[in-house]
Amino acid sequence: MNPILEVSGITRRYGDRIGCADISFDLYPGEVMGIVGESGSGKSTLLNCLAGELIPDAGRILFDSRAEGVCDLLDLSEMQRRVLSRIELAFVHQNPRDGLRMGVSAGGNVGERLMGVGQRHYGNIREQALSWLERVEIPADRIDDRPSQFSGGMQQRLQIARNLVTSPRLVFMDEPTGGLDVSVQARLLDLLRGLVREMGLSAIVVTHDLAVVRLLADRILVMKSGQVVESGLTDQVLDDPHHPYTQLLVASVLQA
Amino acid sequence: MTACLEMNAVTKAFTLHNQGGVTISVMSNANLRVGPGECVALVGPSGAGKSTVMRMAYGNYLADDGEIWVGDVCLNRASPREILMLRRQTLGYVSQFLRVVPRVATTDVVAEPLLALGVEPRQAHARATELLRMLNIPERLWPLSPMTFSGGEQQRVNIARGFIHAYPVLLLDEPTASLDAENRAVVLSLIEQARDRGAAILGIFHDEAARQQVCTGEIDVSEFL
Question: Could you list the residue range(s) of the whole structural domain that residue B53 is in?
Fold first, then answer.
């Protein structure tokens, strides 16, 4: 099996400061990788470089695309990149407002993605939107409501539906359970786990929450000051941390 | 399918970087072999490293040196992906603690290992309820999350999860610890059945009578130091 993503030497500086330095890893189909570290460790910089929201100063990001075969995401034209982002990649933001169109109905938010990939039949689009709302546990009678009328947890679930309706191959998530109540977090985690398994998704999840990463990710990168200081199987890194920083991170978690 | 579990000259120490950098050596020469149809008990005083051996055999702790083989996979050289595949198909683990996503129904928790193997949901759930019934978990609890269950109930949910797939290699950490006589007997017969179908089993059993009944051998972990 070939990796879906081969990342090598990704470096991004902010002036003299280092955002992330010389990051390399492979991600395989169906794999979920977590990136953990404190704020300022470079985890969001790395994610944004991978997802095309930031341009790295150096490195390669080879993506095994359904349509084009293996291509370097950094060499694509703006147009090619946009097509790929619409169909094969997805980005779930920490704040649903960054990933949703707040002035458009819930059904419209999901349907818009389908129109973006060329679907035109209104009945089909609405039917698929409905089935996705059901999958993310949003009641069917809320389809014509705007996200601004939704709770934070519902907005986040809608953002997930909007992102996954086109069956992407690779999903980037930035603190997907970030601003949510713990009770809502658990349900969202279970939903994400189920979708990852059913759809065979690959995902890269940035979080500072070690409990979230333990439940969601197969393997993790631990970042500090822009560098990867430790990586491996999630439970192994969390239960038998070797690097001083990882040990500090694990030892600092409060027991509920 | 059958497989062996083997450890050759395994060493393990913990370095505590945030506590003055002390290094605690736990074992300097661990050797063991569990073949198909064998059930081997790890014995030795508390703190001798029984749980460390189990965790290394699951890939949860990293061995510093030596080799740990499960079937044809060398755990300390395998990628995370290979270890996860091994855990899905070959290597089962019944730990003492239940760690699950909150608010997920007990039947789903138990069925999960089969779903991960691609078994039909209906079939996986049927097998899950069969095990839950066998382990005397009351049916009214099945749709609830096991996080609110009693210690003994949680342990039986763990056991159901660990026995739902016929893993060729099984690790059992105190599988009968907090069980009453009736459930203890059910668990021991599950272990015997697994052993008789050719599973290689490594376990910690403080319950000596249980050890007598199901184990084919013993290894004293204090010899590994």
Answer: 5-224
